[in-house]
Design a protein that fits this description.
Elements (H helix, E strand, L loop, with lengths): L15 E3 L4 E3 L1 H4 L9 E3 H78 L2 H25 L15 H6 L16 E3 L5 E4 L4 H4 L8 E5 L8 E7 L5 E8 L2 E3 L2 E3 L5 E8 L5 E5 L2 E5 L4 E7 L4 E6 L4 E4 L10 E8 L9 E4 L6
Antiparallel strand pairs: 1-2, 1-3, 4-5, 5-18, 6-17, 7-14, 7-18, 8-11, 8-17, 9-10, 11-12, 12-13, 14-15, 15-16
């Protein structure tokens, strides 16, 4: 037989195979006491049996993945069906709202004509008609406001089985680059945590949110591949997370153009709801404490996830990334409870 190894102890060709020890044997080794009760086969028979075993195992693996594929396909179909039902329901709500608004416009127009007619009358007639014409207008105001209550469109999110487990295979150990932090941000020693620090009083008292956002970049950079990291921010009123491209760095100062930032922005709204914004897209949902960000550079894909609920928050249409991308984190100093904002990068799972 070609390719047979030689026994170091006996100098014979190893033509046999011990299934218990999973090793080749020569004739002399097979007669040794330690192999007396072992199942020893000719090498060619053992090789053929191994081929059969491997083929059987391959079929088992294929069968398991087929079951998983079928399961995920069924889950996907159910998810899409629920979204389709919600879409139809929301379209019905929008149609009903449109009809309500149209009806109330007509009612207001009639009321306006009623008022104008009374204004055209003389003082005596206005006094006589005051109760019969003007008062009903004001009496109907509360009723009109009640009727104007509109049903809001809602979108539910549904968990995706195994989502986080899959994403965690791409998890990266992201740290903050303290040198890129805004002067009013304080980065922790382990580079995993940032908070607003010495913020001037005029900023703390400023009612406008848009001017009070401070950012810091991640130390890691991406020019290819798939990457995933998680962030938590507690009770922050406003934050922004995603990726960005640094336009220029001059004298230690960063220059980032708005079009170079791809990030999801969150605002805490009334009734403890959040509005999420990415460019011109707005999504309203219940607040979350921990968000996952997934980046596929080559595909131009970025997605944002609710880590706790295993749900997708939003994924914009794929775009084309150019140059080097940095993880991007931004905070607003104004929390509703008066505390300074903070944000943390979750540690690697094996830490």
């Amino acid at each position: 037989m070609v390719g047979l190894t030689t026994c170091d102890q006996h100098g014979e060709k190893e033509k046999l195979f011990c299934e218990e020890d999973q090793r080749p044997l020569c004739e002399s080794c097979s007669l040794a006491p330690e192999h007396k009760h072992h199942h020893v086969l000719p090498m060619d028979k053992a090789a053929e049996k191994c081929k059969v075993d491997v083929k059987t195992f391959k079929q088992s693996v294929i069968s398991e993945y087929e079951k998983m594929y079928q399961f995920f396909q069924n889950e996907e179909n159910q998810h899409l069906l629920r979204l389709e039902r919600e879409f139809r329901n929301n379209m019905e709500k929008l149609k009903e709202n449109k009809e309500k608004i149209s009806q109330q416009i007509q009612n207001l127009q009639r009321m306006l004509l009623d008022v104008e007619e009374n204004l055209d009358n003389g003082p005596l007639e206005m006094s006589q008609n005051k109760c019969s014409h003007v008062c009903p207008v004001f009496r109907n105001e509360e009723q009109l406001l009640e009727e104007m209550k509109l049903d809001s469109a809602t979108w539910n999110t549904y968990p995706i089985t195994g989502l986080r487990e899959m994403l965690m295979t791409y998890q990266r150990d992201i740290t903050l680059d303290a040198e890129t932090a805004h002067p009013h941000l304080v980065v922790s020693a382990d580079l995993k945590y940032v908070k607003c620090g010495s913020v001037p009083q005029d900023l703390l008292g400023n009612e406008e949110r848009s001017e009070d956002v401070f950012f810091v970049l991640g130390a890691q950079t991406f020019t290819s591949g798939k990457h995933y990291w998680e962030v938590e921010w507690g009770n922050n009123t406003e934050w922004e997370v995603g990726v960005c491209k640094v336009s220029t760095i001059q004298s230690g100062n960063l220059s980032i153009l708005p079009e170079d930032v791809t990030a999801l922005e969150g605002f805490r709204c009334v009734n403890d709801y959040f509005t999420y914004k990415l460019r011109d897209i707005f999504i309203v949902s219940e607040p979350i404490d921990k968000m996952g960000i997934f980046l596929d550079y080559e595909k131009g894909h970025i997605a944002f996830y609710d880590v706790i609920e295993n749900t997708l928050i939003y994924s914009p249409p794929d775009i084309i990334f150019h140059g080097t991308l940095h993880p991007y984190f931004a905070l607003s100093v104004n929390n509703e409870d008066g505390t300074l904002a903070s944000l943390g990068i979750c540690p690697m799972r094996n830490e």
